[in-house]
Amino acid sequence: MENEYVERNGIISVCRILPNHRVNHAEKEDRQGADLVDKDLHQAETTIRRQCERLGSIDSLCYSEVESTELSLPDGCVEVEIAAAGLNFEDIAITMGIIPGNQHLLELEGARVIRRVGTSAIQFTIGQRVLVFEKGTFGNRIIATTERTYAIPDSMSFEEASSLPSVYLTAIYSLFDLANTQKGHQETGISYEKFGIPTGNIFNSRSTTFANELMRPTNGYGVDLILNSLTRDLLDESWCCIASGGTMIELGKKDMLDRNYLSTKPFGRNASFHCFDMSRKHIADALIARFLDQLMGLIEKGQVKPIDPIKTFPFEDIRSAFKFMRGANHIGKIVI
Prior knowledge:
The protein is an alpha+beta fold. Helices cover 26% and strands 22% of the residues.
């Protein structure tokens, strides 16, 4: 028996609450993530990508299908199968919510072979070994423009190739374009083992005492170029070490996001301060192509080499790679 009812236009209606299973399922997926499915990442027919489902939690990293069908390939682009992808601290910072960014498009560099070739991408062939510099390489494949893709020699492993772009492209642009480095310029942050720099010219960046220590071997001159990722007081001490007419290039983000202050004193000696992030999308493809060409030219001449050492993690254990990098005790490159 119904205790409550209403009659409208000859139709009697009663109160009922019926679950909308499709809406409930979508809401659950939005809050908790989709149900897990076992699938071979590199045998999947669709594009699958690792992404962060909840900012602030490394444990929320999971693989998700981008589309249920194969993605369309734009003109002038190629699709690259990914066998190795380099991990950068920016991926950690975005995942943990430290800096803003797209948590669904992690990582910027990877390598394997061409899977599909778009119209007018005639310089590449299916099966060709390449590295790629594009957001979203934590997955089984990625679509990138031809300018962001570069052929690699058979002598170079996919792990080595995926260690190259972020580090060297940032260095090339910073040294040659922003700082216009010339022979005779003095730089900071170079190791004795790699380049034969006397140990007395290598300083501990964990303390602000390095500023006064650095001035002694340079006879008070300072340095012409600083590539900086230090923060707060350490950043300010680095900036004060810059020589007249020198250039400091800030690669970090913490002080910018915290809206910290910067001493204006070095500007009085014609010093320059630049902030730069190679991962930004506004950097033109043509510029990336030039940097990749410069990089591979340096490698062919033996003037630079792939990053060493390389610490590898399997694609099924990216969480461990993130936690390893968060420990801040490694050197070299972490590659998935």
